[in-house]
Amino acid sequence: MSDDIFTLHRGTRPLLLSLPHVGSALPDWLAPRLVPRALQVEDTDWHLERLYGFAKALGVSVLVPRHSRYVVDLNRPSENTPMYPGVNNTALCPTTFFTGDALYRPGEEPNDAEVAQRVDRYWRPYHAALQAELARLRAAHGTVVLFDGHSIKGELPWLFDGALPDLNLGTAGGAACAPALRQALADVLAAQSTYSVAVDGRFKGGHITRSNGRPADGLHAVQLEMAWRCYMDDTPPFGYRDDLASRVQPVLQQLMAAMLAFAEGTKA
What we know:
The protein is an alpha/beta fold and 268 residues long.
């Protein structure tokens, strides 16, 4: 299932992989309003669809947007409340890069009416598809896990201090999934020694994790924020690195296996 907003692969097992920041397309009406640097869409979650390419073979549903987060950030609430109060955040329709520099040419920033239009055109269809797929999987299986996959440059002083750990699991402080699932995923991360890890640290899960994780209703949501250095070059042209990706993919596969084992009531 697809259109010009997203692509949805419908799987057969109780796990949905959402990759809300992999889109890189900029509409023709937007590109001329951005500073030239923005045309490189540097704040994309690069190559995650390729990195998680094994998911479909496991029977996992996969939801992928077409457009860049510079159009609208699918992992922010539609009312644009900050995800992390008290620190720098990017907005629902970002006006800055992750470095804090201006994204738009002077005077070209979107007003409230345009933001609302972008929400209707791009944000709502993605979220409607996400929730419909979760409902379908839950109807079929009773329990479903939403895995929200992200990646980011490992050092961005405007957003966080120091270097980000390699693998950052977020469960909204445990509110978005059952304790048993959170522990199973934390155990997977603790069992390896290659990558540094944080659980509900700087990245606790964005809007998709927080709004869809309702453990009491059989809907469990987790986010993984991964440092680019785990699988790609973190400088332009942001190339995919097979040598690095092949090392981290087994850990990602183990995380996904633990999610499926939890949802299906079996052992990973």
